[in-house]
Design goal:
This protein is mainly alpha-helical. It has one domain: Di-copper center containing domain from catechol oxidase (di-copper center containing domain from catechol oxidase, Orthogonal Bundle), CATH 1.10.1280. Helix content is 33%, strand content 6%. The protein is built from 10 helices and 7 strands. The strands form 3 sheets. Strands 2-6-5 form a 3-stranded mixed beta sheet, covered by helices on one side. Helix 2 packs across helix 4. It is globular, with a radius of gyration of 19 Å. The model has no long low-confidence stretch (mean pLDDT 93). The chain binds CU-O-CU linkage. CU-O-CU linkage binds next to helix 3 and helix 7. CU-O-CU linkage (C2O) binds next to helix 3 and helix 7. One of its GO terms (molecular function) is catechol oxidase activity. Its cofactor is Cu(2+). Belongs to the tyrosinase family.
């Protein structure tokens, strides 16, 4: 039986471009070897710490609402270093951003199939983006020489995080490497993020929008997401054609897609950068947005009765990434399940919407 995996040698120009947009080549540099399977295993240090039950240092992703100036400066330095790498280095910011174009504008065919490989609108959405951030974070950490360095998560589900974080803001950030000129100017801070963004949300007051945000969170993680297939999205198996929005899980639709569109520039083709697949990851805020989405997966799983999909076609689906040493590896969707094995966790911050009764 075939496993759903991208065929790196099949790389072609992106498909599914917004009308009026000129396509560009986002194929990853092809390695001259067969990528080995990378499986997360507890590090020696962790194993020892467990044995001796000593306290170990942990990699903790901080909330943007609690990140201080020295953390922000360090994050900026990491991106400065990443942006300074030659553009053909797979760890460079350009290549990191192009990963999104490659998997989202379907530049690869599925291995042993004539169908293209698409990670959105299906149950691959969570595990793909978790692995994407995993390697992205390790590359940043290695550039900084601090293996405990962790990405921030934009906790827009909390009133304190409901605007573009100050260190990413084009208006207030002293760090140009964290801002992006292609965002909606009217949505820069102090505008309130609309987690249910649509044409009508533009005229809402802060108070009303905060209530709707709580409502959106409550629906995406609780009310509408008790069944795993509603939360994760539709099954996507070898030789399946990609789906459209109907395949999305609750969180992928809202707040994920809506926050992308809310950040992107309304006057630009395809709401770029954040609102369009091929350019979204050129905005550094993309990674903080996706760390938040990744955290929502953990929050959902912590609710009694919720567990990850164990279907073989999900567990064995594969992705390809360059690691922090510039080596291409294969990873499995099912191996993204356990954060202890992946070696990071999220700062515990309040989730007021959990107790929201609509
Ligand atoms: Cu690959 Cu935020 O989508």
């Amino acid at each position: 039986r075939h496993v759903l995996a991208p065929d790196i040698s099949s790389c072609h120009l992106p498909l599914g471009f917004p009308r009026g947009e000129r396509p560009y080549d986002c194929c990853a540099p092809a390695p001259g070897y067969e990528p080995r399977l990378f499986r997360p295993t507890p590090s020696v240090e962790v194993a020892e710490a467990v044995q001796n039950s000593t306290v170990r240092r942990e990699k903790v992703r901080p909330a943007t609402s609690s990140a201080d100036a020295s953390y922000a400066a360090k994050l900026a330095r990491a991106y400065r270093l990443m942006k300074a790498l030659p553009p053909d280095d797979p760890r460079s910011f350009m290549q990191q951003a192009n990963i999104h174009c490659a998997y989202c504008n379907t530049v690869y065919n599925q291995a042993n199939s004539s169908q293209v490989f698409q990670v959105h609108h299906s149950w691959l959405f969570f595990p793909f983006h978790r692995w994407y951030l995993y390697f992205h974070e390790r590359i940043l950490a290695r550039l900084l020489g601090d293996e405990y360095f962790a990405l921030p998560f934009w906790n827009y589900d909390h009133p304190d995080g409901a605007s573009i974080p100050w260190f990413f803001s084009s208006r207030t950030s002293p760090f140009p490497e964290l801002s992006d000129a292609s965002r909606e100017p009217a949505h820069d801070m102090p505008a309130t993020v609309a987690l249910d963004h649509n044409v009508d949300t533009e005229s809402r007051s802060h108070i009303v929008q905060m209530r709707e945000n709580a409502n959106t969170m409550y629906r995406a993680l609780l009310r509408d997401a008790s069944a795993p297939e509603r939360f994760f999205g539709w099954p996507y198996r070898h030789d399946d054609p990609p789906m459209e929005h109907y395949g999305c899980g609750t969180v992928e639709l809202k707040p994920h897609n809506t926050v992308h569109d809310w950040v992107g520039n309304r006057s630009a083709v395809g709401l770029k950068d954040m609102g369009t697949f091929h350019l979204a990851a050129h905005d550094p805020l993309f990674y903080a947005h996706h760390a938040q989405i990744d955290r929502l997966w953990e929050l959902w799983k912590a609710i009694p009765g919720h567990r990850d999909i164990d279907d073989d076609d999900y567990v064995n689906a594969e992705f390809l990434f360059y690691n922090e040493y510039g080596e291409m590896v294969r990873v499995k969707a099912g191996d993204a399940s356990d954060l202890n094995l992946l070696g990071y966790r999220y700062e515990g911050v309040d989730t007021p919407w959990m107790h929201y009764v609509p």
